[in-house]
Amino acid sequence: MSLSSMSMLMPSVGIWEYFDFARVGMIKTTQAIDSAINSMKIFQSHNPELVATTTSPHFFGVAIALVSCLLVAPIPEARTIEVLFGYAILNFVYLGSFLMTQSELPVIIEYWLLPNLTYLATCVILTLIRRVFISPLRNFPGPASASISNHWMAKELGAGTFSKTVRDLHRRYGAAVVRTGPNEVSVNDAEAIVKIYSGKYQRGSFYEGGKLRGQAAIRETRSQYHHTIWRRIWDKAFTPGELKHYAAQTENATSKLVNSLKKKSGEEVDCTKAMDEFALDLAAQLTYGEDAGIQDGTGIETHLESIKKYLSWLGYYATLRNISELLSYTRDPAVLTTYCSNSESLLINRQRNHPDSHDITSHLLLEDEESRRKFQVPLQLAANTNLSLLMGTAVGTTLSQTFKTLSKNKKIQEKLHKELESHIKKGGDLSTESIKPLPYLSAIITESLRLHNPFTTGVHAAIGEDGLDMGSYRLPPHTQVYVPTLTLMTDEKYFENAEEYIPERWTEKEEMVKDKRAYVPFGYGIHACAGKQLAINELKLVVARVVAGFEIEGEDDEEVEWKDYGMVRVGEWKGRFKSRK
Ligand code: HEM
């Protein structure tokens, strides 16, 4: 019986009736234990040689473990709390009954502690046997430790190395499907995208760990019912009219960035820091109507650091579904509290000081016209506005990687500069609207989103109860699956010279894109990026204005730290932005 259905019984049954139930249970178990021990003793005296096997307390531990593994194994995503609750209740009744009849320590150890230890050890062994030898995923290649436990994946995500490791595994095995968890596979197949993400399958269990203060935002909710309603609310924040409104704010913020780069013309600038701070301030401006004060030093100094720490923490725990489920019943760890409270302070400030601000939050406060439902204030609203802020920072990561690439590719830089110059000569300006049709600028942003995408892990989904037949392979029912974006978008099968930054593949060298279905920088299907056009507008504007105003230089061979915690964070990169005459 599930916890929720148990709690439904609560109001109709008095608490004393539960005690009575436990008391009767204990008496009956006591009688059973007594007669079992007596029969064992009789059996022992008649068959001393069989004692070790059939009547040993270990035998019961093994037998019960077998039964419980058989019962639990077929349940997809069995709730940890329910399994532990069932185990604790049974043990409580068993131990209580024991203590009513037996007070000698050796007997308690022999008939309670030992069977428990045997039970737990057997469960572990049976689970390992099932995962390695019986699982329907056993024939897919993958690291042995990944088939045994999710800890392999958690470790990779927590360390920020996951996407690259998965890409290397696909290349090493030359396989479309690689097993990266006991019940999880990575599918590097453009054809699978439509089938997995069109809306038939639920989000993967991975997203449960992403709840903030117990609340899922639109990206994390696994309920398709809630998602449909929430998505309608979110989409209202990105209509063409709203995008025009955000464009004006983006243009102001970009002018400020360009002015500050001009002041440091020719000097070494930590470009990653500059772009991260710009992106966070802009995201706060668009979400809460006021920037986060990061660039001018009035905001929370550690805000960006808290995002990085949170992402690394999340990468580790979100993968360990059982642990993240149990953590949801405990106090939030400091890393989560700090992350939440930094953005919540921006929301509180907005609600207090300018509640009528025209921003993304103003839309998230409205109700969905079809269902008449809205986000509950404050926690659901806070989780969703927090997501808006977090997604906004993805723009910064893409920008700093783009500028580093341009610094190494003078030809590309100059070609773009020429396009911008001729646009201005023809009377165009560097506004969001005016630069939209520029083909080379668009090609640069498209290529950056392929090679410098901030979401390289892939979107997790849970295959339904019929499984998914892809012809050359089959994904069994309830498999957790993802299409690894980094692997896919750098695969020679889909892009010629896939590791190289070649904007022309999106203009005159179309043959270099072998299969467009593999280009999914904003995800695919019902959960695809809601802020896609906003992100593209921001990227285009900043790249256009910076390249129009500066020559970008940097050390050619400088290795920049690159970490993927479910969202990419890049380390320090020093560039020089030299003002053009
Ligand atoms: C370079 C910038 C960006 C990229 C590459 C990007 C990419 C993505 C991707 C791949 C997803 C799907 C993630 C998943 O399902 O786990 C997503 C979801 C989402 N993005 Fe973006 N994003 C960017 C910027 C933004 C911005 C600026 C916003 C504005 C607030 C935004 C809002 C959202 C929202 C609300 C979702 C969840 C949609 C849903 O679950 O229905 N994104 N984005």
From TrEMBL:
Domain of life: Eukaryota
Residue intervals passing through the bilayer: 58-76, 83-100, 112-129
Family annotation (InterPro entries): Cyt_P450, Cyt_P450_CS, Cyt_P450_E_grp-IV, Cyt_P450_sf, Cytochrome_P450_monoxygenase
UniProt cross-references to SUPFAM superfamilies, sorted A to Z: Cytochrome P450
Keywords, in A-Z order: Heme, Iron, Membrane, Metal-binding, Monooxygenase, Oxidoreductase, Transmembrane, Transmembrane helix
Recorded GO CC terms: membrane
Cellular localization per UniProt: Membrane
Pfam family, one: p450
The keyword Lipid metabolism is assigned to this record: no
A single MF term (Gene Ontology): monooxygenase activity
Residues that, per the record, bind heme: C529
Cofactors: heme
UniProt record similarity statement: Belongs to the cytochrome P450 family.
Protein's recorded name: Uncharacterized protein
Organism: Arthrobotrys oligospora (strain ATCC 24927 / CBS 115.81 / DSM 1491) (Nematode-trapping fungus)
